[in-house]
Amino acid sequence: LKRDSKFAEITPDHVKFFKELLGSESAVIDGVNADAADDLEPFNSDWMRKFRGHTKLVLRPGSTEEVSKILKYCNEQMLAVVPQGGNSGLVGGSVPVFDEIVINMARMDKIRSFDEVSGIFVADAGVILENADNFLQEKDHVFPLDLGAKGSCQIGGNVATNAGGLRLLRYGSLHGNVLGIEAVLPDGTIVNDLSKLRKNNTGYDLKQLFIGGEGTIGIITAISILCPQQSPAVNVAYFGVESYEKCQQAFREAKGQLSEILSAFELMDGRTQKILEKVVSKKLPLEGEYPFYCLIETKGSNGDHDSEKLQNFLEHVMGEEIVSDGVLAQDQTQMAELWSCREGITECLGHWGGVYKYDLSIPLEELYQLVDETRERMIKAGLLGDTDEHPVVDVVGYGHMGDANLHLNIPTRTFDKRVEKELEPFVYEWVAKRNGSISAEHGLGLTKKPYVGYSKDETMVKIMKQLKDLFDPKGIMNPYKYI
Ligand code: FAD
Ligand code: MLT
Ligand code: ZN
Fold this sequence. Notes:
Strand order of the largest sheet: 13-10-12-11-15-16-14
Shape: globular
Helix content: 25-40%
Distance between the termini: 14 Å
Bound molecules: flavin-adenine dinucleotide, D-malate, zinc ion
């Protein structure tokens, strides 16, 4: 990848313009006039420490008008930009590749309104997901998205990546929940589509292009979203299961018997749980060891009703030997403890140095088969083993089974070209053959840029490019990424 010479290099004059525009000292991190490498570092490197950009300028606007003026100027001056939320993305989309200016949204963190009758919440893009959720919980509501990075990711970033998370099974995708978007186009135009309507059939639904657009056509500055009522009765169970086949049976039973109260169905293979045990000395909830574990959560409005359903379900799956052992959380602390067996995986996998991450949609029946085949491949290539000569530590699978979304992860001691060659295009071909998706929820960013063709045909890629050109004719928005 080479820096595109069509983009201007940042000069002290540009910086002067931004300082005058944004006023406050903390709104501009200036590495052009002085060395600011340390201050710029967190904005240049991503969560996995896999990607590193070389920006010399970070701008932190405080209002939609400021975003508009920044983009208008950048567009006129041919300055490339990267929109950045909480920088928790996992595909290298949120950091610069070269010297693109980072436009970080953290200062736009105001909640604008909440309607307790309709459940419609409107807020700036830079509100941290956990803050939005805490605010809503005080009003007996929840944000319809939850994920392990909630303490740092922003709702604008969530929408820009169309994040899926742990309860998509229950609340659905952001494509359905987001009712409106306010965004700024590269030429500074403010698109005010901050609708609070559930139904609005007045032509093309333009906001959908920003949902999952990954900052390539504009910057989201605010969102309006439908939030469900908080459920007073919550239960979490964790099961040991003897085979993937039985995990599928458990899922069918859960859907059938728990139906409307089922709020999450997550899968963890035994290896992920062993890694948790080893890396963070976690005491696992069950005594025995199993090749698979499932986490089931229910949320309902009537505790007695839910308990009865859950009890029947447990008796059934244990009686039929669909699950081998299980534990039901007795209080909030135990619930959090069980959830940490699932949510803690991501962080642990980075323990040895690197991790190759694949976030895939695969028909449920074959979902786990890919993990086995990938492990066999690594063994055959002599890359997987316990010693330092082997780059690969393990091959593991976990994910949102309820959404047919597998996270295939390969923790490694170092990022190694030989490993990469075994994995790609193997994984993508495997998925394409089954009409799956090479990105279920994390997006394409930089990592999957060369592989879009495995999930979208030529016509679709062509139309995506035409749309990109329409919104961003000069190509300043998040260049070098997937489009
Ligand atoms: P960033 O990482 O800053 O940006 C992501 C992309 O969006 C970039 O391309 C960026 O340019 C663009 N962007 C950011 N803000 C804006 C904006 N305001 N306007 C336009 N473009 C913007 N993802 C899931 O889907 N499900 C999960 O369960 C999940 N769990 C995770 C757990 C952990 C521990 C971590 C580290 C990540 C996880 N993720 C998950 C990845 C997920 O994509 C992000 O956590 C989140 O959605 C990104 O939000 P962010 O604010 O950090 O965005
Ligand atoms: C998750 O489900 O835990 C996230 O998507 C992060 C990951 O893939 O590790
Ligand atoms: Zn996930």
